[in-house]
């Protein structure tokens, strides 16, 4: 018999409640055969309701066979009819701004039988899904709640497409697995209901907030850190000890007595650590964070700031541009040394608890 991949084996043995990733025909046959041999009708039913059509078909046949043998097969849940096509009005989903820890909350909203099905995911751009819950909310209640939340500048929440919300949650799941973490149990139960993911061809920020010519806007990228939404952003945690060491050596040095020389040394140290820290992985993370911020700013009506954030994202994602030639990245490190001004509006306070009504 074909050996099962670890994910499929964990699913079969009950170690995880998530359906396995895509399986080959041989692996699918082996998984269904194993579950049928065990008489595991519940897991066969889950496979039968999955998005993998060939695997679902095999699972349903196995279920029928178990039923003929007298095995109790759970009743299939009632299928929800969801109209499709150009005449269906999509209810916007929601997302909060990304805070200084790289965390945010996303609300995937779909039309349900008696209201809206709302899936709330607390996401980290390094650790994946931190929390998850699902609820059904009356349409009137959810729309009134959405209006209040979006109008509250302290929360910095914006409307996003259902497709993008689904993409963000799936990306969070992948980060969870890559970090070796176990997804929340509520997510494991709800994942099947999230349905098929249609990957986005490109980030929506490129359409609602296209980047500006870098030659004309380079000097405007560092001031982006003055925005309340970006004020709390700091370099990656692993870069801070190196920066602290460099700055400490300069500040305590008895060989540097001239203030101008000391400032030049500090600037050089910041450039050094920034260049070392802008690895391909951190470049991708920071670029994606900027694109998400651009999208939310545009959705909240601040298109000028959004286009600057998009420009900073494209510059950051350009592997040929070092940190020393990226004003946004340099300011990210510089403001740790020179504490940012406390003037201006307070930074948004991303929701720390559920906003489900």
Structure report:
The protein has helices at residues 6-13, 25-38, 41-48, 53-68, 139-151, 162-178, 185-194, 205-208, 214-217, 240-252, 259-277, 280-299, 303-317, 327-337, and strands at residues 93-96, 103-111, 116-124, 128-137, 157-160. With 357 residues, the protein is of the alpha+beta class. The protein has 3 domains: 6-68, no CATH class; 93-200, no CATH class; 206-337, no CATH class. Strands 4-3-2-1-5 form a 5-stranded antiparallel beta sheet, sandwiched between helices. A hairpin with a 3-residue loop joins β3 and β4 (128-137). The radius of gyration is 25 Å and the shape is elongated.
Q: Any descriptors?
A:
48% helix, 5 strands, 5-stranded antiparallel β-sheet, 14 helices, alpha+beta, 3 domains, 357 residues, 10% strand
